[in-house]
From TrEMBL:
InterPro entries: Cu_polyphenol_OxRdtase, Cu_polyphenol_OxRdtase_sf, Cytotoxic_necrot_fac-like_cat. Belongs to the purine nucleoside phosphorylase YfiH/LACC1 family. It catalyses: adenosine + H2O + H(+) = inosine + NH4(+); S-methyl-5'-thioadenosine + phosphate = 5-(methylsulfanyl)-alpha-D-ribose 1-phosphate + adenine; adenosine + phosphate = alpha-D-ribose 1-phosphate + adenine; inosine + phosphate = alpha-D-ribose 1-phosphate + hypoxanthine. One of its GO terms (molecular function) is copper ion binding. This is Purine nucleoside phosphorylase. Pfam families: Cu-oxidase_4. The keyword Metal-binding applies. Keywords: Hydrolase, Metal-binding, Transferase, Zinc. The keyword Heme does not apply. The gene is pgeF.
Length: 241
């Protein structure tokens, strides 16, 4: 049985979105069971079955990306194959934007009129590199009219990083210091949700929802690369009806 998440956010009714979990698919072993990634070592036939299950819930095949922890944004209508990018935007009904995650943060974006959608795959490198700001710019609407939703990602209790990550985040935005708590031996616990909220606030986004998950702690529901290394990927998807 599937156990998918439907974002609780004040998006217009023509904006549809969902996030898959690890439940309800055909994969086995460390990929059990709804792995949607073709690049992690899972049986290709099982991945194909999982993607077919997902496709039944969507108006079209998702615009899959080859994610590289960068800040490039693609126009969903123009996507062919799987371009290297970590974000997408679309204005055409039925175009399904997607990112895959297993600890990194999926961010969904739309405007209050429901005229444009955006999606971003944001690990700490993407956040520092400006993937949020790049996606907002590509949407070409006033940030104050935007709504954002933060999907399942690694929670602060599970996200231990070195000082270089903190330094990079603070160099990009001084306020990021508040998203780190020292935990000894030069290590820090990072709050990726707070980092994202700080960037969204600085960009002027008017409404931010979500951010209550932890992929590391909830092994029954979520894949986590940090926890398991060999694992599957979930998908966050958004489209206009």
């Amino acid at each position: 049985m599937t156990d998918w998440i439907h974002p609780d956010w004040p998006a217009p009714p023509n904006v549809r979105a969902l996030v898959t979990t690890r439940r309800g698919g055909a994969s086995s072993g460390p990929y059990s069971s709804m792995n949607l990634a073709t690049h992690v070592g899972d049986d290709p036939a099982a991945v194909a079955r999982n993607r077919a299950l997902l496709r039944h819930e969507l108006p079209a095949e998702p615009r899959w990306l080859e994610q590289v922890h960068g800040s490039d944004v693609v126009e969903g209508e123009a996507v062919r194959g799987a371009p290297q990018a970590d974000a997408g935007v679309a204005r055409t009904p039925g175009v399904v934007l997607a990112v895959m995650t297993a600890d990194c943060l999926p961010i969904l974006l739309t405007d209050s009129a429901g005229s444009v959608i955006g999606i971003a795959h944001a690990g700490w490198r993407g956040l520092v590199g400006g993937v949020i700001e790049a996606t907002i710019a590509a949407m070409q609407v006033a940030p104050r009219d935007m709504l954002a939703w933060l999907g399942p990602a690694i929670g602060p209790a599970g996200f231990e990083v070195g000082g270089e990550v903190r330094d990079a985040a603070i160099a990009a935005q001084a306020a990021a210091a508040q998203a780190f708590v020292a935990c000894g031996a030069g290590k820090w616990r990072a709050d990726i949700y707070r980092l994202a909220r700080l960037r969204l606030a600085h960009a002027g986004v008017g409404s931010v929802s979500g951010g209550e998950f932890c992929t590391v702690r909830d092994a029954e529901r979520f894949y986590s690369y940090r926890r398991d290394r060999v694992t599957g990927r979930m998908a966050a998807l958004i489209w206009l009806a």
